[in-house]
Amino acid sequence: MTTARTPRLTLLTSSLLAAAVLSLSACSTMTPPAMSEADIDQVNQADKAAMRKDVEPIKGPLTLDEAMARALKYNLDRRARLMEETLALKQLDVTRYDMLPQLAARLQSQSRSNDRISQSLNPETGEISEVGFISQERSHQLSDLGVTFNLLDFGVGYYNTRQQTNRVYIAAEKRRRAMHLLMQDVRTAYWRAASAQKLRDDVANTIKMAEEALADSRKLEQERTRNPVDALRYQRQLLENLRLLEAINQELLSAQVDLASLINAPLGQPIPIAESPVGNDSSTATSAPIEKLEEVALRNNAELREQHYNARVAQEETRKAMLRMFPNLSFNYSFNYDSDKYLVNNNWRETGLQLSFNFMNLLTGPMQVKLAEAGVALADQRRMATQMAVLTQLHLARLQLINARSQFNRAEEVYATDKRISELMRVRESVQAGSKLERVSNDTAAILSLLRRYQAMAQVQVAEHRLLAQLGIEPRIGSTDELSLKDLTTQVKGQSNPWQSLKAGK
Fold this sequence. Notes:
The protein has 13 helices and 6 strands. The chain has 506 residues and is an alpha+beta fold. The chain has a domain at 82-106 and 146-474: Outer membrane efflux proteins (OEP) (Up-down Bundle). The protein has a 4-stranded antiparallel β-sheet with strand order 1-4-5-6. Strands 2-3 form a two-stranded antiparallel sheet. Helix 5 (151-223) packs antiparallel against helix 9 (302-323), helix 8 packs across helix 10 and helix 10 (361-430) packs antiparallel against helix 11.
């Protein structure tokens, strides 16, 4: 007996050692190597090419409508939001298949080291027969093709599908919110870039003039042709103007970079800006009854609509928890084949019906239901909190718009006054009735007034779009992937007065 078992033990030991070696080698390959600099450079180059793929170059001065259309079509963050919505749709398609019966095919090969021998028992004498019977081949193949339908899986898949459908709606609302923020940022960056383009030459010329006046003053100070204190005061005023001009210049330099990033244009490449007038008729927003604005916001606000869908997801979770407390009924039907030559019937059909119930669900089921109901209560509370936040932001956005319009009108008046003063000081300097300091100071004041005018204009645009976002009003455009940039720009331009929907009573 010991001699017969030794080869088997040796074979078993060898097999275990081989399995251990294979397991260790597999574990050693589980940790991927760190990426090399060449790999990172290759991925970066591929990403850079993908970012610029199919992006039309800017031809001619960029209008505000085209900037918004480019942002909607080419902005990388918006592309990610669209992909999230597409992924949610694909997940919905996959979830729907969970409700279908399972159709499975199996092919199995069995082999044993000795024959399967069975003996029989005489029920009258209780003796076991001395003759054994081989009831199965040492090696044989089994195959089957069967369909299984599980009623509980069908019910859970049904509610999963409903939940995933709501998640698709949630992804769409998140895309709407992202679009509102994107358009708001584009408006701000566009007017900053427009002011940079308008003020660039004036700032450079005034800086040059201030530096020349500063050099002349220092030369006169060294020659002691005037009171040193007066010269130093003169220089300090010039330096103060230079500091202000350089701060303005620094502010303007980043405007083009911000705009290029939003519309996915090459960074560092100059973008010519076509100055656009303030076109939105915000008088409708400020004159419309606040009750009407609240009604529109509660119906269309993207963030609030998202919370409505979250509440529906929580409600479906409660129904799933209740469904799991019911008995499970499953049905199966299959075609089977076994190559064993000792079988009389190698082919057969098999049908089964099974009813099962997990008695532990009597303990855990009620707790799961209570947990799901708590999730519903939390979703309802979040929706109510969001509703209050939306109404609060609506009132604040309306007040900010009124204030922004007032500030813009005041900035217009200040700029017109400073511009006239600057023109008069240039005339006085030309007839040598004024100093360079006066001209530099007045030119600086005019530049600062013009900058504030553009900033006030941008704030009007931002305030208007912030109110639009709270109301849930956005341009009605087609698919940004299917539309060309020209057609998309035309559609955005056609929606340049979004307040028209309020006038129409929508």
